[in-house]
Design goal:
alpha+beta, four-stranded antiparallel β-sheet, two-stranded antiparallel sheet, 6 helices, 6 strands, 27% helix
Length: 292
């Protein structure tokens, strides 16, 4: 007995049902993938924070500086390419925080979040990371000639860990947009994140006055998804991962990372300031921080 073929209506019905199932399941699969990436990213963030603690214990309890020196004499061999060393054309790298703690982290791949495109050339891979340092509050940008005598104005001095009033509530590293924004173009801004109050802080930050969180003042991350948050990358749903000075790591949404400020994505960064120092997560001085 011959089997009756499907009618056109039956085929269209089956196709419609399959399409509906796909529409329901694909977002679920996408969310599951993003959740898995978020977990791996949290592990990376924690490992970076713990590596920094080990560095501090061997460095007289001083935080890593954003960059130890900009002087040509201070250039170091790129650990990703030993041919990329001082003396070669455009060779040698500035000794930045990622170089300082790498001895303790061991794996350069931990500087990149799952889902981020890792730069192919070694110079860009050295600079443009998936994580940003709270550089302006945990080290200090000095607007004076480098004390080594090379004549370069602008250098970073270290800060002691004792300046932190509450290590469990002070941000050290955050999900950052360096790898995504700068790609294959090496940038000294590829491993930082400015805090929300950068424009109004008593500390110094790169890119003033167009620095900090808010509309218009997007600085080095202008035109990217991370411009309004000046380098902080809320790449997972509505937030991102961060590690704290005491070494623990957690996921926070954007509003939580900016807690204690009047941040709004609809106002310019020049108006973003701290309104409650006891809640603010970026300034290590906490309650003792001056009014901004």
């Amino acid at each position: 007995m011959l089997r009756k073929a499907f009618t056109l209506i039956e085929l269209l019905t089956v196709i419609a049902i399959l399409g509906l199932l796909a529409a329901i399941l694909f977002p679920v699969f996408s969310q599951a993938k993003l959740s898995a990436q978020k977990t791996t990213d949290l592990s990376n963030t924690r490992q970076i924070g713990l590596a920094a603690i080990l560095y501090e214990s061997d460095s007289d309890d001083n935080f890593p500086t954003y960059v130890a020196s900009f002087c040509p004499e201070a250039l170091v061999i790129n650990p990703l390419d030993h041919e990329d060393r001082p003396g070669n054309p455009s060779g040698g790298r500035h000794p930045m925080w990622q170089f300082e703690i790498y001895h303790y982290l061991k794996n350069w791949a931990d500087y990149f979040a799952p889902g981020d495109t890792v730069p192919k050339n070694s110079a860009a891979r050295y600079h443009n990371l998936s994580y940003g340092y709270n550089y302006g509050y945990l080290s200090k940008l000095e607007l004076s000639p480098d004390p080594s005598g090379c004549g370069i104005v602008g250098w970073f001095s270290s800060k002691a860990t004792s300046v932190v009033n509450n290590p469990a509530a002070t941000i050290a590293f955050v999900d950052g947009g360096g790898a995504a924004v700068f790609g294959e173009s090496p940038s000294i801004f590829g491993n930082l994140a400015n805090p929300p109050d950068a424009s109004n802080s008593t500390e110094e930050f790169y890119g003033l006055p167009e620095a900090g969180w808010g509309l218009i003042c997007e600085n080095y991350f202008s035109g990217s998804p991370y411009g309004v948050t000046d380098g902080f990358a809320p790449r997972y749903f509505t937030g991102g991962n961060l590690s704290f000075v005491d070494g623990h790591a957690n996921y926070f949404n954007v509003s939580h990372v900016a807690v204690g400020t009047n941040f709004s994505s609809n106002q310019s960064c020049e108006y973003t300031k701290v309104i409650d120092n006891s809640k603010y997560l970026w300034d290590p001085r906490g309650n003792s921080a001056p009014a901004e």
